[in-house]
Amino acid sequence: MSNGIHRRTIVALVHDKPGVLARISGLFRRRGVNIESLAVGHSEQKGFSRMTFVVGGAENSVKNISSQLNKIIDIVDASDISEKNIVWRELALIKVKCNQSQRVEILELSKVFRVNVVDVGINNITFELAGGKSKIDSFVELLDQFGVMEVMRTGRIATLRGATKIGINDGEFGESNSSDIYIADKDASGSV
Amino acid sequence: MKENLIKGSEIVCKALINEGVDTVFGIPGGAILPLYGTLNKFPELKHILTRHEQGACHAADGYSRTTGKVGVAFATSGPGATNLITGLATAMMDSVPLVAITGQVGRPAIGTDAFQETDITGATLPVTKHNYLVMKASDIGSVMHEAFHIARTGRPGPVLIDIPKDVFDELAEYDFSKDSKIDLPGYNPYLKIDQNQIEKAVDLINEAKKPIILAGHGVIISKAQNKLLEIAEKAQIPVVTTLLGISAFPEDHILSTGFPGMHGMAYASIALDEADLIIAIGSRFDDRIVGNAKRFGKNSKKIHIDIDPAEINKTISIEAPILGDINEVLGLLNPKVDSKTHPQWLKEVEHFKSEHPSLMIPESETLLGQQVIKTLSDLTDGNAVVCTGVGQHQMWAAQHYTFNKDSVWLSSGGLGTMGYEIPSAIGAQIGAPDKTVWSICGDGGFQMTIGELATVAENNLPIKYAILNNNHLGMITQWQDMFYNGQNMHETYTGNPDFVKLAEAYGIKGIRVDNQNDLEKAINEANNHKGPVVVDFVIEKVDYVFPMIPAGGSVDQLIEEEKK
Ligand SMILES: Cc1ncc(C[n+]2csc(CCOP(=O)(O)OP(=O)(O)O)c2C)c(N)n1
Q: How many domains does chain A divide into?
C-alpha cells in the first residue's frame, strides 16, 4: 500500500474466446487500474479459462473492481480474494552469467532455494523457481553478484485454501443470491 | 441437405419479430444491404429512414424510453457504424436498452483495411453493455436473442451486433425455441433479494426522524412508480428525484420535493443534506448530485436499492444496500415499513420550500426561457412527453415543467448529448403516437441533428419542437461568465438560420414568438396543429440557470440567484 497504490488480487473464470482479454484490459484502463501481473490458462472446465490478476491503483478505482469485472458478460465470475485465505504461487525463469569456475558455487546456492536447473550453457545457467514473491526476489538478489541476464516471471496464480472453488455455477441464467455478491468496502456494507 | 435453411438476413428479421420489435431506425449502406434486401419480406417491421445514424440511435433510444421496449437501430459498416457511437454512449450512460445491428465488410476482407472497414466491436467496447461479431449465420439466431436478453434485463443497456456482409447471405437454420434458450453462465441479472438486507433497511426507515427518498431512473426502468408512491405515502417520506428520475413521482404531489444537485431546486439540495436517512432508489449517486463526495449527506445514513452491484459503495458509503429489481424490492419492503408520519420533518421541508423558492421567474420585459417552459407546462397539464437537448433549456425544462402522473421525460442525463432533442422526439412520438410530444431544444443542439427534421416531415410526426433560441451556446456563456472571468469565446452565433423559414422549407409549420404576450397563443396553436411544428422562441440573450451548485461543491456553495 505504498504511495497510495492499493493492490488487489483478482481471480476470474472467463469464457475462452477471442476478445475477452480486451474487454477486461479495457475496463482496467478506463478505471485507471494498472495490471501488475496477469496469468491465464485453461481451467478444469472445458471452454473456460482462469485468470489471476494482481492490479494496483487508487483505492477508489480498485476497491470495487471485481464488481465492475462481473458486469462483463464473458466473465463467469470474478472474485477479489485479497483479504481471503489464499495460497498463491509464481513461477520464474532466471538466466544468470556463469563461467565454469562459478558453476559449483551457484549450484550450491540453488540447492538452498530448492531451485531446478532447466538449462546450462557455456557461459550461463537458467533456473526455474516457484514460490512467493519474496522467495523469488531474494534468489534474484543473491544471483546479482554473478550477473543476472534475464528474469521471466509468470505473475501470481492464486486459489482459496480449503474446498471453496472460485467461480459460481448456478446453471442456466439462474438466480444468484444477492448476498453472495461481493460489495466493496466490507465495513460499510455489513451483512453482504 | 437440411430443409429449413434461410438467409442470415432473414434470421435477423425473424428474431426481431420474435422479440416483439415493430419499428427499426436506420440508414442502409453497402455492408448491410443484404439485410435491407430482405426487409420488404417482413412488413411487420417498420423501418424509419433517418438522415444520420446518430439520429437513428437517439430515435431508438427515445422509442425505448417511452415504451419500455428495446429500441433497434441499423447502420452500415465503417462510417455508418461509427456514427452510432454517440447514440450508444448516450444509452449506455442512461441505462437504455438498445440493440444496434451493423453490417461489416465480408469475412474475407476483415482485417485488410478494406473499404468502409472499422473494428466497431473494438470501438464500441466501452459504450455498450456487450457486443458481438457474428462470423457465421448459424450463430445469428442465438446471438440476437442473447442480445435482447442482455439489453433489457438487469441494468439495461445497448448491445451491438456486427454482421459481415456475406454472413447475411449465408444460409442457416433458425429455430426460435432452440435459439432463444439463453445460456450465459456469466450473466445473472435475476438477483434473489436478501431478506437480511431488507430487514436492515426497514429498521433504518422506521427509526429515521428525517428520511428522504432519492428516486432515480431505475424506478422508471423497473416500472416501480406506484410502489414508490406507496412507500412515500405510507411512511410520509419526502421524495426528491435525480434528473433522470424526473417523472417517476408526480410533481404535483405534496411530498414531491423537486430534484437536487447542480441545477436542482435549492430546497431539494438542502432537504437532502439535512436528512438523517437517504433512501436512494435506482440512482447511482451521480457527481452532479453528489458534488463533493466527502461532504455529501454528512448528516445521514444511506440505503441504496439498485440492481447493479457495482454501483454500491462506488463513490458513497452505504449502510444498507439492497440488491435487486426495484419493483420487487419495494414489494418486499413496503409492507414492513411502518405507517407513520414525521410532522416535524415535513414542516421543516415545507419551510425549505418557502424559504428557498428556487423556481421564481425573474421580472423581465423580454421573453424568458423559464416563462416558455412554465406556460408549456400549464397548457399541457404537466402530462406531455418532454424531450430536451443539453444546456440551459434542459435545466429550465427540468425545473419549470411540472411532471405529473402521465408525463414522460427524456433527456440525456449521463452523457449530456446535445443533438438528442430532435431525434429522441421522433422515437418518442412513434412509441407514443397518441401523446403530445414537446421537445425543448437549444438553438445549438437543434443544429447538431437538424437534418432529422426531414425524417419528421416524411413521417408526418406531430412533434412540437420548442427552440429556446438565445443565439448562444447558453450554458457555455454561463460557465464562462461564472468561472472564466466573463471571457466569452466561441459561444455566440451570428449565422443562425431563420428557424421558421427553415421549418417551412421542410414542409413543417413554423411559428415565431418573441414576446410574452404571444406565448400562450403560440403554444395553443402548436398544440392544436395536427402535424409537426417548430416554434422559434426568441428568448433573452444572456440569462443564467439558478440555483447552481458549482461542480464538486456542496450545499455550502449553493448559489440561489444571480447577484445583481
Ligand atoms: C455534443 C456536445 N457538444 C458539446 C457539449 C458542451 N455543451 C454543453 S451545454 C452547451 C451549450 C448548449 O447550447 P444550446 O443547445 O443552444 O442550449 P442552451 O444552453 O443555450 O439552452 C454545450 C456546447 C455537449 N454537451 N454536447
A: 2
